[in-house]
Amino acid sequence: MPQLPLIESNTALFLDFDGTLADLAPRPELVQVEPELVGTLHTLFERLDGALAVISGRPISELDHFLQPLRLPAAGVHGAEFRTDGGMVSKTSAAPGLELLIPHLEALVRAHPALRLERKSVAVAIHYRQAPELAGVVDAAVTEVLRHAVGLEALPGKMVVEIKPAGVDKGDAIAAFMKSAPFAERMPLFAGDDLTDEPGFAAVRKLGGLGVLVGQRETVASVTVPGPAALRSWLHRSARALEGAGGHPRAVPNEAEPGPARRTTTS
Ligand SMILES: [Mg+2]
After folding, report:
1. Among candidates 216, 192, 143, which has minimal Cα distance to 205?
2. Which of 16, 18, 194, 197 is catalytic?
3. Domain that holds residue 66
4. Is position 197 annotated as part of the catalytic site?
5. 186 and 216: one domain?
6. Are residues 78 and 178 in the same domain?
7. Which pLDDT score, from 0 to 100, does residue 94 have?
8. Using an 8 Å Cβ cutoff, are 132 and 141 in contact?
9. Which of the residues in the chain have pLDDT under 50?
């Protein structure tokens, strides 16, 4: 595979969060953000004229919490939440059937206390990181609860299966960002680690850009880096190089201001 070039000033940069910017933790709330990372993302945001977005399975509110005081453009819950600037988050509406599934999933977690149920606005995740042997049990249960559900689909990830609105993925989210300024006309680059990032790699490839897989596996990404530490080191080096290249920095949005809703809602 080719070497990963430093980020250039005409890049539209899309970054997954867990397992990419931050090391994975035993539970999602225990994730730690390297202190230097926030400053580096700030610099990159400025030097790329605002063309930097976080593309995550987490709700955008959690991304804001981990990356404070930054409020970066973001797609959350795999594209079901969307924010183009520091302002309002627009959301795909929750499928009406989602609430009906919850009691079944709660029963599953009661039967297997090592599992963890995570509610995320319009989606729900069942984590089995504490008990990898339960992968099959979780898969079977999710298949069963989705048998009659409309507008919902399963999304397997690392030690987790999510149930999310059908028809949204990280590829669509990146393609939506690329339709308007400051992202449009730039070379898209997306870095991610999980199976759920593959649609994002496919989307940037289709747009003539570069997919960067953090980790090692079968992938449609063009380049790989060994882990989040290597990815962060590349971001730090790129930020320093772009800073050295000069240019006009742009203010980072860090206050909640109403913004235009970008992607309105369908279920
Ligand atoms: Mg990830």
Report:
1. 192
2. 16
3. 11-91+168-244
4. no
5. yes
6. yes
7. 75
8. no
9. 255-267
